[in-house]
Amino acid sequence: MKKLDQIAYSILDLAPIVEGGSPNESFKNTLQLAQYAEQWGYKRYWLAEHHSMPGIASSATSVVIGYVAGGTHTIRVGSGGIMLPNHAPLVIAEQFGTLEAMYPGRIDLGLGRAPGSDQLTAAALRRDSRSNGEDFPEQVDQLRNYLDKDSRHNRVRAIPGEGQEIPIWLLGSSGFSAALAAKLGLPFSFASHFSAENTLPALRLYRDNFQPSEVLEKPYVMVGVNVYAADTTEAARYIATSHQQSFLNLIRNTPAQLAPPVDSMDGIWTAYEKTILMNQMKSSIIGNKEEVSTQLQAFLDETKADEIIINSMVYEQSARLRSYEIIAEVTGMK
What we know:
The chain is α/β, with parallel strands linked by helices. 42% of the residues lie in helices and 15% in strands. It comes from Paenibacillus albiflavus. Residues 21-245 form the Luciferase-like domain.
């Protein structure tokens, strides 16, 4: 079995807009966290594409990636992910080709096929009612062709983009992208942080069907997990309630800014809502340093991940930084 200090760790950031806050403050907090993450030894810092959500500032994902890469020096920066059906593959090839030209050897391109929002917003983004994500494999193929060095012979070219070695990852919360990543021989990142039940079946599907490629000789799995670490168990449970409230708002279809933590969720959620939420977020890790270490090791034992990417939606920036610092300490990075 792998030990915690034998794998890499990364950060997934949705650039949360806290209640009473602003996108400007969110981006400053994002950059500050990325700078500390670089010092603490995290491998990647990924931003996620979401739209029409009052509590998430990373909708223009490529722009935020450039902002973070420009304010750091060594940490890899990328997308977790770009929702490819929302975009023309040529545009993404150009955007990430530009980022790679600016920050050579530091840019990752993680791709998903979900809308990253509700269906009405997806329709506004895609402008084509027939675009429902089913052509995701074809879009991935187009994008890879634009980035290929031989694309210089094509009439339509991605400049910057063509010939640049930008690592492409497929992201998923079900078996669809797992199967595609296996077929293409690409690294795969699974969203266990909100789709815990599907984790092991998707990872098994990917590993059992993996076909070696020029990119990878063997499967490479990164798994997402929510972690809320603090100096005491009570403090960890307290800061985790902001994310619980956020997830509850999504269940109710009332998205909002990230709310301050509360002493108890009793009276905020119903018993039915609590069951749904806890089932969706059951891979979340909450506790003090020792508890986080034990739970994280159990998660690693179960998933056999090659890398773990950590999401922590914390209201107070100081508590958010401390949570990631504790993770760095228990995993041997710091």
